## 1
Amino acid sequence: MIKTSKRYQSAHEVSDLEQAYGLEEALGLLSQMAAAKFDESVELSVRLGVDSRQSNQMVRGIVNLPCGSGKKVNVVVFTDKPEEAIAAGADEAGMDELLKKVKDGWVDFDVAVATPAAMKEVRAVARILGPRGLMPNPKTGTVTDDVETAIKDIKLGGRVSYKMDRTANIGILVGKRSFTTEQLAENIKTVIDNIGQARPDTMKGRYIRTMTVSSTMSPGIKLDSALFAKY
């Protein structure tokens, strides 16, 4: 007989973990489950129908959560005017010394911003930043001369990245348990739309297979497919 934890048993008393629920109902059930002594993160887990062996079916992206992530975001800026970047809220800024730290393996930050003039030097660490989703990119607003605005948007906008793993699954932070149901629902709907728009052109068939929402210490609650059926 499989032994389950008291927390899992408690969660089972609140909901049927085999049933799929509408978003608001699922979040309501999550709020009723036993909470940890810290403000748990809430995560959306997505199972995709892509072929993870095909490089042209890789799914990754960046999304700005309208209600924030609840997570402190560490930002570094590659610039020849580090004082201005630090004054704007950057956690670290600079050029040569910062590049050397990265070359030595330091990647203890969430987002990297660079001015266009700095990108020639920053490309030297692309092999380190790229695989981690940290490489500055004009498409995401992280290559810009308006460093102050970029930092503020990143710090306040709940910018989070996601990347499909080898089993075609994505896990993405959508907030904290202290958030209201309305805040979590708005963030999750934004994430679903973003992932839906990232569907590979070469992919055929059903794109999003299943979704579950969970907190750090809770089991996953299945979401009704009506939420993502159009994808």
Note: Strands lie at 20-21, 41-48, 60-64, 75-78, 92-94, 111-114, 159-163, 169-176, 208-215, 221-223.
## 2
Amino acid sequence: MVNKSNWLVKQTVEEVASQACDFIVKAAQEAIQERGVFKIVLFGGRTPEHIHSLLVKEPCDWQNWHFYLGDERCLPVDDSERNSQMIQNTLLDKIDAPEGNIHFIPSELGAEEAAKAYDAIVKTAMPFDVVLLGMGEDGHTASLFPNHKHPLDERVHAIFESPKPPSDRVSLSVHTLSQNRTLLTIVTGQGKYNAVQQWRNGVSLPVSKITSLGKSFVILDNAAWSGEE
């Protein structure tokens, strides 16, 4: 069974985002005070937009934040379906972060070349201060899907035949995502209920394999926790 003391259930998506924002801001303050830099891994989808809308209102030391991605789709740089585009539009365009602190996955190069290029970046970035993850209805996280096998020694995977389009992607590995001081897994929506139940009952899912060097929290809304809107 998963340690339920790290599961935080909120009533709404907005409350989930507020809790995540609080954790992130506190972790950033501590990291910059102790090490002079804050390194965060972001994820795609709709839920992060709520978190970003709160973060941009915070008086953060953006000059010392470094941004990384958990995964990316192999699409043209300006494609609206890329995680980087959503993050750029909802967060990075609204804060004063140096361009050199933004570390996107160059997935326009193709999965294999992009994975090689990003490996060199994350190799020197680990451990991350915060890794933010989401979860799909099948229990996948980043672009790590059920029943897909990857070399255990890879930090970054080239993903082919993704069950969700586009088929080609790039994803940080279980090992790399687990190199964090704080892990925040954000789960919202009634559609996630079955996967949440499997996770709580010890079923091995991609999302359940990610661990932390420090603190780990799963922040859910009531719909994902109880299956009721």
Note: The radius of gyration is 16 Å.
